[in-house]
Design brief:
Number of helices: 13
Structural class: mainly alpha
Helix content: over 70%
Order of helices and strands: HHHHHHHHHHHHH
């Protein structure tokens, strides 16, 4: 029992660490200026593969590679995942470095709602009434934000949809966190490296041109990408999914607070109204998830209590000689 308690506590700390780092990452990307968003993205791909490769070398976890290579379907899905996460990473870096942190945070707030919508459209899942209500409130929030800003919140929607599709593809691939990141960055590596080489030949490469500190920060993009993922993987095997579902809101909450308090982005009334509707939708979603999990546990306990106890097998008795 004590071991389970310690594992749960460690898992909670790992989860808070993972989502906390993802929530505070908007503080990191501006440090990489004057490098542009595309160069930062390319460095993130190249250095992530280097870091993850070293991590896999340390734990000697290579057995998944031959199986992946022998599966054209999985290779295709990995390529799709790499393309989708490239869009997500690149847009997020650009958003932070051009003063759209709040709108980017909205993308990760509405991501659970988009994931549910994809489940209905792609996987033909059936929603409970509370989930339908949450999706409806989320759509209302998008309309309010679009009317208030005079344009759809395209940054938020693109981030939400790209990450939801990424999650859907990763679910079908069914690889571990480190392994999946290694495979995806392997797909990204050559185009990213080629772009950096081209920048170098045209004189537009920031890497190595602004001091050792700036160069080290660009190389650290691999660590910034991989470490939260490692913490998330450690949390996922130690805490229930319902707990992870609640922790996931830490990242966009931190991002939102940074956008408002640290970066001083504007929050007109219509934007507050849109965010309030999103938070209402997430409250409905969380309440429904917790209620469903509680009912499932109660049903399992009731079934276990009602099942008859199987008698222990009796060995045949033999007389002594």
């Amino acid at each position: 029992m004590k071991t389970e308690t310690n594992d749960g506590r460690a898992g909670l700390l790992y989860g808070i660490g993972a989502y906390g780092m993802w929530g505070l990452v908007p503080l990191f990307w501006p440090l990489l200026k004057p490098a542009g968003a595309v160069e930062i993205l390319a460095h993130r791909m190249v250095w992530s593969l280097a870091f993850v490769g070293l991590a896999l070398l340390a734990v000697r976890r290579w057995s998944w590679i031959p199986e992946l290579v022998r599966s054209p379907r999985k290779l295709g899905l990995i390529t799709v995942a790499a393309a989708v996460i490239t869009v997500n990473w690149g847009l997020y870096i650009w958003s932070v470095n051009t003063g759209h942190v709040v709108e980017a945070s909205l993308g990760y707030f509405i991501n659970p709602l988009v994931t549910i919508a994809l489940g209905v459209l792609v996987l033909k899942e059936r929603l409970r009434p509370a989930q339908w209500a949450a999706v409806g409130v989320g759509l209302s929030a998008v309309v309010v934000l679009a009317v208030g800003a005079g344009r759809p919140p395209w940054i938020s929607l693109t981030l939400a949809f790209s990450f939801a599709v990424y999650g859907l593809v990763k679910k079908k691939v069914n690889l571990g966190g480190l392994e999946s990141l290694a495979a995806e960055t392997a797909v990204q590596f050559l185009p990213a490296l080629g772009y950096l080489v081209w920048l170098g030949t045209t004189g537009g490469l920031a890497f190595g041109s602004h001091g050792a500190g700036h160069t080290a920060l660009l190389a650290a993009t691999g660590i910034v990408t991989a470490v939260p993922l490692v913490c998330f993987g450690a949390a996922a095997i130690r805490v229930p999914l319902s707990t992870l579902g609640l922790l996931q809101y830490l990242a966009p909450t931190f991002q939102f607070l940074l956008g408002v308090v640290y970066f001083h982005e504007e929050m007109p009334p219509e934007r507050w109204a849109g965010f309030a509707l999103v938070w209402l939708a997430l409250t409905l979603l969380t309440w429904d998830a917790l209620r469903t999990a509680r009912r499932s546990r109660a049903a399992v306990a009731a079934a276990a209590a009602a099942s008859p106890v199987e008698p222990l097998p009796v060995s045949p008795v033999t007389s002594a000689p």
